[in-house]
Automatic annotation (TrEMBL), chains A, B:
<protein>
    <submittedName>
        <fullName>DNA-binding transcriptional regulator, GntR family</fullName>
    </submittedName>
</protein>
<dbReference type="GO" id="GO:0003677">
    <property type="term" value="F:DNA binding"/>
</dbReference>
<dbReference type="InterPro" id="IPR036388">
    <property type="entry name" value="WH-like_DNA-bd_sf"/>
</dbReference>
<dbReference type="GO" id="GO:0003700">
    <property type="term" value="F:DNA-binding transcription factor activity"/>
</dbReference>
<dbReference type="InterPro" id="IPR011711">
    <property type="entry name" value="GntR_C"/>
</dbReference>
<dbReference type="InterPro" id="IPR000524">
    <property type="entry name" value="Tscrpt_reg_HTH_GntR"/>
</dbReference>
<feature type="domain" description="HTH gntR-type">
    <location>
        <begin position="12"/>
        <end position="79"/>
    </location>
</feature>
<dbReference type="InterPro" id="IPR036390">
    <property type="entry name" value="WH_DNA-bd_sf"/>
</dbReference>
<dbReference type="Pfam" id="PF07729">
    <property type="entry name" value="FCD"/>
</dbReference>
<dbReference type="InterPro" id="IPR008920">
    <property type="entry name" value="TF_FadR/GntR_C"/>
</dbReference>
<dbReference type="Pfam" id="PF00392">
    <property type="entry name" value="GntR"/>
</dbReference>
<keyword id="KW-0238">DNA-binding</keyword>
<keyword id="KW-0805">Transcription regulation</keyword>
<keyword id="KW-0804">Transcription</keyword>
Amino acid sequence: MSIESLSALDRSTLRERSLEALRSAILSGRYRPGDHLGEVELAGSLGVSRGTVREALRHLQQEGLVTAGTRGMLRVNSLTAIEVRELFRVRAALEGLAVREIVASPRRAATAATLRAALERLSDEDEPAARIEADLGFHLLLCRLSGNSMLVEAWQRLEGRMRVAILDGSAAQAPMMARDRHAPIVDAIERGDADAAVRVVDEHMTAAAEHFAEATAAS
Amino acid sequence: MSIESLSALDRSTLRERSLEALRSAILSGRYRPGDHLGEVELAGSLGVSRGTVREALRHLQQEGLVTAGTRGMLRVNSLTAIEVRELFRVRAALEGLAVREIVASPRRAATAATLRAALERLSDEDEPAARIEADLGFHLLLCRLSGNSMLVEAWQRLEGRMRVAILDGSAAQAPMMARDRHAPIVDAIERGDADAAVRVVDEHMTAAAEHFAEATAAS
DNA sequence: ACGAGGGGCACTGTCGACAGTCGCCACGTC
DNA sequence: GACGTGGCGACTGTCGACAGTGCCCCTCGT
């Protein structure tokens, strides 16, 4: 009985609600990396059948929050320091493409303005969880504004793993998500300097990678 | 009764076999893009229960071979010409990262040799399906040899969508997969010229994108 | 004391059935 | 003839139960 039962107020499917509940249970740290996620236990906690929670778990597996162990048993995923570095390099490639497409677009000025507005939200948040949301929200917005739907999808499929990495190294990650860490990206986009923008994104990602990789290694 | 029943010879799970059967049924064109994939019909065809085929379908959905329509109904996916172009740009970014990492690696020479060997297989194949496999195999190898596991995963999550795109424009795609289209990539890697390698990959992807996008638009 | 064997336990894999919902078609009404 | 309406069929959502399979611990024999 680790997670609260599902409320029956909204009209979404039980699977969706179970998925959400499980995701937030993992992301909030209620389940630690490596913890076994038994279908029967979760079904009991959530008040749904095993089949339903099973589907939610499979979805989380695709997201990378959950990984398969022996005999199909699922457990909360955790990343090695090496994987964290790899992950951020892939992110850099993806977001590098995003800024390139944004700069090349005729709507560049409007896009830059949107991004600058989003930048503001990064300083407003104090609570760690809110900071994480603001940071990921900014980067997702960056991908969305590229107008490349496949890019957005690819990025989102990385998001789960990113959250795992952040979860592991949640201590003192605040500086990485500060406003002035992201401002140079917008600056370069505004100037229309694609190469500089890519370089800045790359540096941002490299720094973040080291930050979280060290935190992972330390834990 | 469109697909043959599952053989009970091997020891893999029914879900895995169903998944494989459905995937190959879609990829072989037995189901056309837009076709509705009913759980009951498929369960009957495959000789498994609805729950089992359901899980296989959900997996295919994540792979991008299948997409959700109204009221959760699933149908065979198809890509617009725009999405095909987007897809190949993402691929270019990913494989660009791959060649960069390969060039930067101390094992560059050995990697280049491996790739050159793989290059040979591209000319051997005559049948379209085999050519597709050889081509995708080469690019997957490229990602694998980068040593970046997250990159490989990201690329593989794009693979299903790629196959859909290829499926749509299967006519006369042969030249795109020829050996000399890929050789320049290996050449640049061998020379250790990362920028040139990235540029070559980019051009290769752009050309392929146009090729398949046009074929998609025509169909 | 220590190793082999066996039985229970805790899982997941798979299945068949019931329930709710949406679209469609025929029918009756104005 | 057009339109509302009621039943019907086809789907997916969800559930509870049975089956198979390792793992662990307990027991028994030496």
